[in-house]
Design a protein that fits this description.
Elements (H helix, E strand, L loop, with lengths): L6 H11 L10 H18 L3 H7 L4 H9 L18 H12 L3 H20 L2 H12 L6 E4 L15 E5 L2 E11 L7 E7 L8 E7 L5 E3 L14 E11 L3 E2 L5 H7 L1 H29 L1 E2 L2 E2 L4 H29 L5 H26 L9 H10 L8 H15 L1
Parallel strand pairs: 1-4
Antiparallel strand pairs: 2-3, 3-7, 4-5, 5-8, 6-7, 9-10
Helix pairs in contact: 1-9, 2-5, 5-6, 5-9, 6-9, 9-10, 9-11, 9-12, 10-11, 11-12, 11-13
């Protein structure tokens, strides 16, 4: 019996199940983006994922390669040098990467989020200075620094402040749980420049190595351990006035503009984890013999697999719908929240069932599902908790009632 079942079988399972059965047309370009990501993940990420998880080592070389391939700026337009991928293409790429390494996938998520914000709001000078080299893969990852120790879901409650002094902005405050924070070349930092509340927020670009920027040590996390999650402190951090991104007091709108695509990305990441776990569970159940029979011959196992496949397919449908709505230019607040909420919670259910199928082996670090179980849990917290997604959906329901 293989000690590492699941990845090759997962690739075959995704191919066999296909995407056309969901009733959504996928272009050749979207399919190519997804396949390119999945092939890279199988070739470059899968083999070292367990060791990176053990040591917490950031996948520096792989991220450099992904940057050179354009996968750190997938949705930046071709006019700006990016891949110009649709949200469907982005969804497929995130799923393909996460099936091999969820830590790398969340690095992609934050980097693509930052890249899209830059592309949408940077001035011509800022585009030349930061966006152009970034999409060429010359700068490495970027971070999206919004969350604070006392301000997670309530983005308008941030306390980091920026004051204008002699043609420069002085930043003071702290950000928490910043993906790629210890390795990012650029940080998109949200700070309060004016009055309290969401109206007083602005967004700034802070470069790595700026005096007054203090990068903390990587968090020792339960899962997704090699994504370089850290704190960023700003102690009299001075940056030029030209580092203000967009308009003063426009930061809250900038943050909101990125939420929909971010939710779709995390839905894709969750599907990658869950599909890998499901494939590992199917492989194990076929090989494992109990009372002289394959585990798959028992009705309970069949019901578990049926429920899991149903959860996965429902998550795919919601994710495709949300991605297509964004591609059509819709705000799709409720649709993207449903996709993120259902995919992350379905991921938790599926991975938990696959651990149960493995029995005691599912609790062993020598088996893939143990890592996937730990990687899955945080998806219900970052990029908007499950509770926040329910609030967004309920608001939409009540507005239309």
């Amino acid at each position: 019996m293989s000690r590492w079942p699941g990845l090759a079988a997962g690739h075959e399972a995704r191919t066999a199940w296909g995407m056309k059965r969901f009733g959504f047309d996928i272009s050749d370009e979207e399919a190519l983006i997804g396949q390119t990501a999945a092939d890279f993940a199988s070739r470059r990420l899968a083999g070292g994922a367990a060791e990176r998880d053990r040591t917490g080592r950031f996948p520096v070389e792989a991220i450099q390669e992904l940057g050179a391939m354009g996968l750190l700026a997938m949705k930046v337009s071709e006019k700006d040098g990016g891949a110009g991928a649709t949200n469907v293409g982005y969804l497929l790429a995130m799923q393909g990467i996460a099936a091999a390494c969820a830590s790398t996938a969340v690095i992609l998520a934050s980097s693509n989020l930052a890249a899209k914000v830059l592309a949408d709001h940077a001035s011509s000078v800022q585009r030349e200075r930061w966006l152009a080299p970034y999409v060429r893969g010359e700068l490495g990852p970027a971070s999206f620094a919004l969350t604070e120790p006392l301000g997670g879901s309530d983005a308008a409650a941030i306390r980091t402040r920026a004051r204008l002094e002699g043609g420069s902005w002085i930043l003071d405050g702290e950000k928490a749980w910043i993906t790629s924070g210890s390795h990012a070349a650029l940080h998109l930092v949200f700070a309060r420049t004016d009055e309290e509340g969401k109206e007083g927020m602005s967004c700034f670009v802070v470069e790595r190595g700026t005096p007054g920027l203090i990068v903390g040590k990587d968090e020792d996390k339960m899962g997704q351990r090699s994504s370089g999650t850290t704190t960023l402190a700003f102690d009299g951090c001075r940056i030029p006035d030209g580092h203000l991104l967009g308009k003063r007091r426009g930061g809250y709108g900038i943050a909101l503009s990125a939420l929909g695509a971010g939710r779709v990305g995390i839905a894709g990441l969750s599907l990658g984890i869950a599909e890998a776990a499901f494939a590992a569970g199917v492989t194990y159940a076929k090989e494992r013999r109990v009372f002289g029979q394959a585990l798959t011959s028992f009705q309970n196992t069949q019901f578990v697999l049926a429920d899991s496949r149903m959860d996965l397919d429902a998550a795919w449908l919601l994710a495709f719908r949300a991605a297509r709505a964004l591609d059509a230019g819709e705000r799709a607040g409720a649709e993207t929240s449903m996709a993120k909420l259902f995919a992350t919670e379905a991921c938790g259910r599926v991975v938990d069932r696959m651990v149960q199928i493995h029995g005691g082996y599912g609790y062993s670090r020598e088996f893939l599902v143990e890592r996937l179980y730990r990687d899955a849990r945080v998806t219900r917290i970052y990029e908007g908790t499950s509770e926040i997604q329910r609030i967004v959906i309920a608001r939409d329901v009540l507005r239309d009632a």
